[in-house]
Design brief:
28% strand, 474 residues, 24 strands, single chain, elongated, 5-stranded mixed sheet
């Protein structure tokens, strides 16, 4: 396989999967939230799922594919895009990788926090352990634990992971013969080991607490999982005692509840999808019935939209945002390239803003510290035009912003019109952006009556208004 000869772990999502025959959208095995790798050593990340229609990947909020400055990971299509890999990871590849899966009705996400280390660690790091479980007698049990362990440097040093049983007196002992343990290792990172604890048919002796015990060169880490008893007859008991012994139609109730929930979800999805489009269509309908004087006021300004950005975002703005606004939606666009530091943005934009009807600022929050982001927003909000801020990345958590930038940053963000960029072909983004902007000038209809000659001043004004939309392509 070209480019994938060393792609160890490509079959990760096809082994040790859950034994279920259901077809709905779900994870095919335990979703590990933490991953580790080493510099210049092959590394893969997985999102093992089934029953989905599409899968998308994001790194720190940035959608795949990524530039070299964001991540060197690429998709492995032969694994149904459930696997990312890179041959030579670096510390810059560390971050939060999110897979978003969807079908006709549902969307699920899973985030993996990746840390690329310089060298193997001496202290074990548990990456995943199953939650406490409730199992009925005769049911199946599956527990999983995975950890990054250090390599043994001494002959008598231990570096392993195993399941142990915690007895009522607080001591740890061996597993029972009915409790099977299956050790696993990662093909991409040998220092990552795991272990499955399974019981085919649970009996009374299988309830209690189990310990995931990890040794690594003298260091010991342990985590606990408790298996609780679940009464399998509780449903039938409640059925016979409900309403004086009459049988409760639990199946019909469950189906009704599912149908109601599906109707609510469909209504919410329809509202989210269609309401902005209806609002935009209503604005256009009202504009068609405006008097000539109101239409003439639209042309009092030289441009409809002032778009400003820094050199970091120039490729996206010039290649997608400006041409779409100008050529597709017929806005007269004026483009201004800003300096990297936001301290002088007001002075750079104030004279240009007087020539325009609205202002769009394109920002990548990740390139600014919280205080710089606050300065940028204040500079924009001081202009006579209320800014519409297009965010090319998700904002960090507001709690962290409040700590690092003060409550003023949080209040400034909440008082600013923010529109999140996703993709050039995502209709929801363009609808939200157009709702935040004034409508472009109405199209000029050709006159059938040619008896009177047009006013030279009017002809010059129309010429300027048309040429303004070409500014986006300069």
């Amino acid at each position: 396989m070209a480019g994938m000869s060393g792609a160890h772990g490509a079959s990760y999502c096809s082994v040790n999967t859950f034994t279920t025959n259901s077809s709905w959208m779900q994870f095919a095995k335990e979703p590990v939230p933490n991953e580790y790798g080493f510099e210049d050593k092959f590394k893969s990340i997985h999102c093992c799922v089934k029953g989905y229609r599409s899968i998308e990947w994001f790194k720190d909020g940035v959608a795949y594919p990524w530039s070299a400055g964001v991540s060197t990971f690429i998709l492995y299509p032969k694994a149904a895009n459930q696997t990312l890999y890179t041959q030579r990871p670096s510390r810059a590849d560390s971050g939060n990788y999110t897979c978003r899966i969807s079908n006709e009705t549902h969307i699920k996400t899973h985030t993996v926090t990746l840390n690329i280390l310089e060298k193997p660690t001496d202290t074990p790091k548990i990456m995943f352990i199953s939650n406490d479980q409730s199992v009925e007698i005769g049911g199946g049990l599956r527990l999983y634990c995975e950890a990054l362990v250090g390599r043994s440097y001494l002959a008598d040093a231990r570096s392993d992971l195993q399941w142990r049983r915690l007895w009522p007196n607080g001591t740890e002992g061996d597993l029972l013969p009915t409790q099977f343990e299956n050790q696993t290792t990662r093909e991409d990172v040998k220092d990552i080991v795991g272990s499955y604890l399974t019981v085919e048919r649970v009996s009374a002796q299988d309830y209690g607490t189990f310990v995931c015990l990890v040794h690594s060169n003298g260091a010991v880490t342990r985590k606990h999982v408790t298996v609780h008893y679940r009464n399998g007859d509780s449903d039938s008991t409640s059925e016979s005692s409900w309403c004086g012994g009459g049988a409760v139609p639990w199946r019909a109730l469950a189906l009704g509840a599912a149908a109601g929930a599906l109707a609510l979800l469909s209504a919410a999805a329809l509202h989210r999808r269609c309401t902005p489009r209806l609002l935009l269509a209503a604005r256009h309908a009202r504009a068609r019935h405006q008097p000539p004087a109101a239409r003439a006021r639209v042309l009092e300004k030289e441009f409809d939209v002032l778009v400003c950005w820094t050199a970091v975002d120039g490729e996206l703005v010039r290649g997608a945002l400006l041409p779409t606004l100008s050529l597709k939606y017929k806005y007269r666009v004026h483009a201004v390239l800003l300096s990297t530091q936001p301290d002088t943005w007001y002075s750079e934009l104030v004279s240009e803003a007087s020539r325009c009807r609205s202002l769009v600022a394109v920002l990548s929050p990740a390139q600014y510290e919280p205080q710089q982001l606050l300065t940028a927003l204040r500079q924009l909000r001081a202009l006579p035009l209320p800014p519409v801020v297009v965010l090319l990345q998700d904002l960090p958590k507001l709690k962290r912003e409040a700590k690092e930038g003060g409550e003023s940053l949080v209040s400034t963000l909440r008082g600013t019109r923010l529109v999140a960029w996703r993709h050039v072909h995502e209709r929801a983004f363009w609808t939200a952006l157009r709702l935040a902007l004034p409508l472009p000038p109405p199209a000029q209809r050709p006159r059938r009556n040619t008896e009177s000659k047009p006013n030279p001043c009017d002809a010059e004004e129309i010429k300027n208004s048309r040429s303004g939309s070409l500014t986006a392509l300069v």
